[in-house]
Q: What sequence folds into this?
């Protein structure tokens, strides 16, 4: 036998017509089974990724609700503080202090719900970092709402 005849003999054994019956049955059963398992695993991975994305969306919906509540409370606080200041700081100081406490509670609840901003990733993390202000840099106006601080025009009138 020459080397070309040996090479042809090897490839003839790989042709399906030369396989034994148990090998043919195994091929007929295993190939579709493995293909099905592979496609099933791919589908499960796809659904897992989709569920993770939906969980992130759900978290943003919850945070949006808490942010809306905090914003509404801040608007109410701003309105009441401006009325208080407009009336020369006369009125119910306890009511405005209670409003300050409610606003602080809503903001704390929102901050707690955010948790670790790094876990939000992407645009959510960037927006949180832009919105988060260091209190040392910018004291909130409610700290001065209870004290009388005349404006520049008021100070000018006092000096004359």
A:
């Amino acid at each position: 036998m020459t080397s070309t005849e040996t090479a042809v003999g090897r490839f003839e054994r790989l042709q399906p017509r030369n396989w034994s019956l148990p090998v043919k049955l195994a091929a007929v059963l295993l190939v579709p089974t493995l293909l099905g398992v592979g496609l099933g695993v791919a589908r499960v991975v796809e659904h897992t990724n989709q569920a993770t994305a939906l969980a992130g969306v759900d978290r943003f919906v919850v945070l949006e609700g808490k942010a809306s509540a905090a914003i509404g409370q801040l608007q109410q606080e701003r309105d009441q503080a401006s009325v208080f200041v407009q009336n020369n700081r006369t009125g119910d100081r306890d009511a405005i202090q209670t409003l300050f406490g409610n606003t602080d509670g809503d903001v704390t609840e929102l901050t707690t719900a955010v948790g670790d901003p790094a876990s939000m990733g992407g645009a959510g993390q960037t927006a949180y970092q832009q919105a988060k202000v260091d209190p040392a840099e910018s004291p909130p106006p409610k700290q001065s709402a209870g004290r009388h601080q005349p404006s520049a025009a008021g100070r000018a009138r006092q000096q004359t």
